[in-house]
Amino acid sequence: MSIPFEKDKDSAAIKSWCDALTDRDLEVRVAAARALARQGELARVLFSESTASVRIEAIMAVTSKKPSLPALITALQDTVSQGSVARARIAAANQLASLGDETAIAPLLAAAHDPNPRVREKMAQALHRLVHRLNTQKNRILFIFWVDRLVSSLKDDLLYETSLSVLVKIERGELSGTTIKPLVELLHSQGASASEREHIVDLLGESGQQAAVEPLCTALQDNHPDIRMKAAYALGKLGERAATKPLCAALQDTASKVCKAALWALAQLEDQAATGPLVDFLYRSSNVYEFERIAYDVLPVLRALGDTTASGLILDCIIKYFPSRSNWDDLSNSYYWANDYMQRTWDYEHPEEDPGVYLTRLLPETLIALCDEKTFQRLLAMTQDPSYSDFLRNYLERYISVLSQRFG
After folding, report:
1. Between 371 and 186, where is the model more confident?
2. What is the CA radius of gyration of the chain?
3. Which one of 33, 64, 220, 224 has the minimum C-beta count within 10 Å?
4. Are 25 and 49 in contact (CB under 8 A)?
């Protein structure tokens, strides 16, 4: 039997394809099922065809064309009620998940009760993909948490059923899915594991809700450094300046990755109230090696904030770390010693000179970018003050001409 051309939408052609579904030849039935599915007749195939492989081919055929959401939902509900093979139910679920439409959530939740453990696993994973494709700003933060927990509890029947029941209540409107309060309570509970707290912190950062700021600031005190780091990044994503002070305090964290996260977050907040703590963080360096490490992170943030009150403090840093020719030699030697490590470890751009030269330019260039008139007058006085080393005065003089054009 010949199969009509697939793009022909004539009702006679559709009737021929439907007749072909009864053919004894499996390949003929598959071709007919594909053609019908691509013409929006997927539900017709699923209701009339009993062979699982044909039904699967029909479902998969719609990948070359935007699938019909109602047809896929019908297919999923039909396959569950008729108890057809697991592969057909999984194929329908995967297609629903790929659409990114919230309408598919309810049927996927219903299918997650499937008696087949393999199907339950795939339904939960499909639901997970779907909700993560949806915009998290739509106040589905609590729902997403329980979907993630559903996937992680596939081998724990009790926790799986608990997660599923909560999701059903949220979907039916019996439990608010817009609040972050249950997540905050779990974050502060003694029973929450480190990995669970990390996940909650990530979700709070994606929530876009101002109410998430306070619990995230509290999470900056967590005894797990990865959680403190993620809390800092989450606060940066929220962009609420109420987090400036706790993030500045996080600059004193013993874990360098937490300090880096706090620096990134402060740059996102663009709050000039962070200027003083940032310069203190830079100035607290006990030696030139620590200074070179911190300066790469702090100076770009200071320039981004654009607070000119930092210029005098940055000048103090220059005086502290460039006071004499001997210190300059020590600094140069440290760069040669650390050059390979820096290039392999740090992500930065620098001119063709070695990284040591780059830092000696980065510091005064930041000073120039932020310089106010008071600091400019200090610079002028320093270049004439013999109590400062010739090296330092010569080093600063090259920038005086640039600033003179600004301050006259």
Report:
1. 371
2. 32
3. 64
4. no
Which amino acid is it at 296? Y
Residue 13 in tokens: 């052609």
Tokens 């989450």 correspond to 234
Pull the structure tokens for residue 34: 């594909």
The structure tokens 């087949």 sit at: 116
Could you identify the residue written with the tokens 């297609």?
95
Listing DSSP states for 249-295 in one string gives HHTT-SSHHHHHHHHHHHHHHT-GGGHHHHHHHHHT-SSHHHHHHHH
pLDDT of 370-390, one tens digit each?
899 999 999 899 888 888 877
What is the secondary structure of 366-387 as a DSSP string?
Answer: HHHHH--HHHHHHHHHHHT-TT
Res 64 pLDDT > 60: no
> Is the separation of the CB atoms in 315 and 378 below 8 Å?
yes
**CB-CB contact of 169 with 146 (8 Å):** no
Residue of 222, 218, 234 whose CA lies nearest to 194: 222
- Is residue 61 a contact partner of residue 88, using CB atoms and an 8 Å limit? no
pLDDT digits (tens, 9 = 90+) for 91-138: 778 877 877 778 888 888 888 877 778 878 888 888 888 887 775 444
Catalogue the long-range contacts made by 185-188 (C-beta closer than 8 Å, 24 or more residues apart).
187/215, 187/219, 188/215, 188/218
Rounded distance between C-alpha atoms, residue 104 and residue 125, angstroms: 13
DSSP3 helix / strand / coil % (the chain, rounded to 5) = 75, 0, 25
Tell the residue number behind the tokens 């009620």, with chain if given: 81
pTM greater than 0.70 = no
Residue 136: alpha-carbon gap to chain centroid: 11
